[in-house]
Design brief:
This protein has helices spanning 13-28, 45-54, 69-74, 143-156, 163-170, 191-196, 198-204, 229-242, 248-254; strands at 4-10, 34-39, 57-60, 97-101, 105-107, 121-124, 132-139, 210-212. The chain has 261 residues and is of the alpha/beta class. The longest helix has 16 residues, at 13-28. The N and C termini lie far apart (36 Å). It binds uridine-5'-diphosphate and manganese (II) ion (MN).
C-alpha cells in the first residue's frame, strides 16, 4: 500500500458524486498515490458501492458537529458544521502523509509534488488571504494531533463555526511559516477569483492544477450549471468516467431527469 494518500469526505450522495468525479480526475492525472474516502451513514448503499470501486480505501466516520449553529448561521452556511468531521483525517495513521481535497475540487494536472510539503500546508483563502482555505491541505496523520484538535475544538469552538475556522485557529502560525507551508494558489483555484482577475488568469491560467468549486453552487447541482471550461471539464469526466457506472436513478439525478433527492 502506498504510504501517501489523497483523502476526501462525503456525507451524502451529492457530495459523493463530487467525490467520484474528483477520484476520476485524480486517476486521469496518473497519480502514484492511493485514494481514500471518508463517508458517513448519509451515503446510500448504491453510491457507496460506486465509491468503493474507484477509491483504494475507505473509512466510515460519524459526523462531528460543531454545536455552533449560531456562528454557522452567521456565515449563512449551516451545513458546514458537518465539516468538523474533517478532524477524523488525522486518525488515518496507516499513511505517512496525506493531502486532503474537498469533494468539490477537481484535479486538472498531476499534483503528486504536493506530498513533498510538510504539515501543515495550504493555500490562501481568496476571501481573507491571511487565512488558508481548508479545501486543499497537506497533513500528517497522528493520533496525538487528532486528540489535540478535538480538545482545541471543544474548548475554543471555531470562529466561523466550520472546520476552516477551527483549523486556522489551531494552525494559527501558518501565515508566518516558511514558504513550504504556503501552497501556491494554482493548487486551490476558485472560479470566482478567475473572473475577478482576468489578466492574471490569462497569464497563469495554464498552470492551474486544482480547481475548487467553492460556494453554494456546485457542479453536481445541474440547475446551477455555470459556464466555464472547468465546469465543462467536471461535466465531461462525469459523463465519460462516472455516469456509465451509476444506477439509472443516480444517472437520472446527474442529468436532472428526475428529482432524485
Ligand atoms: N461535505 C460533505 N457534506 C456536506 C458538506 C460538506 O461531505 O453536507 C464535505 C465535502 O467534502 C465538501 C467539504 O466537506 O467538499 C467542505 O464543504 P464545501 O465544499 O461545501 O464548502 P465550501 O468549499 O463551499 O466552503
Ligand atoms: Mn469546497
Amino acid at each position: 500500500m502506498s504510504k501517501f494518500a489523497w483523502v476526501t469526505l462525503a456525507t451524502n450522495d451529492r457530495y459523493a458524486l463530487g467525490a467520484l468525479v474528483l477520484a476520476a480526475s485524480l486517476r486521469r492525472s496518473n497519480t502514484k498515490y492511493s485514494l481514500h474516502i471518508l463517508y458517513t451513514d448519509g451515503v446510500s448503499a448504491s453510491m457507496k458501492s460506486q465509491l468503493f470501486s474507484i477509491f483504494n480505501n475507505s473509512t466510515k466516520v460519524d459526523i462531528l458537529d460543531s454545536n455552533d449553529s449560531q456562528n454557522l448561521a452567521l456565515i449563512g452556511r449551516p451545513d458546514l458544521g458537518i465539516t468538523f468531521t474533517k478532524l477524523h483525517y488525522w486518525r488515518l495513521t496507516e499513511y505517512e502523509k496525506c493531502v486532503f481535497l474537498d469533494a468539490d475540487t477537481l484535479v486538472i494536472q498531476n499534483s503528486d509534488e504536493l506530498f513533498e510539503h510538510p504539515e501543515f500546508a495550504a493555500a490562501p483563502d481568496i476571501g481573507w488571504p491571511d487565512l488558508f482555505n481548508s479545501g486543499v491541505f497537506v497533513f500528517v496523520p497522528s493520533k496525538d494531533t487528532y486528540q489535540k484538535l478535538v480538545e482545541f475544538g471543544t474548548q475554543h469552538g471555531s470562529f466561523d463555526g466550520g472546520d476552516q475556522g477551527l483549523l486556522n485557529q489551531y494552525f494559527s502560525r501558518w501565515r508566518t511559516m516558511d514558504e513550504s507551508h504556503r501552497l501556491p494558489f494554482i493548487y486551490n483555484v476558485t472560479p470566482g477569483s478567475i473572473y475577478s482577475y482576468k489578466a492574471a488568469w490569462q497569464l497563469f491560467g495554464s498552470q492551474v492544477k486544482i480547481i475548487h468549486f467553492l460556494g453554494s453552487s456546485k457542479p453536481w447541482n445541474f440547475q446551477d450549471q455555470q459556464q466555464g471550461q472547468h465546469w465543462e471539464y467536471w461535466r465531461q469526466i462525469f459523463d465519460e468516467d462516472v455516469a456509465g457506472n451509476l444506477s439509472k436513478d443516480l444517472v437520472n439525478f446527474g442529468q436532472r431527469k428526475v428529482d432524485y433527492f
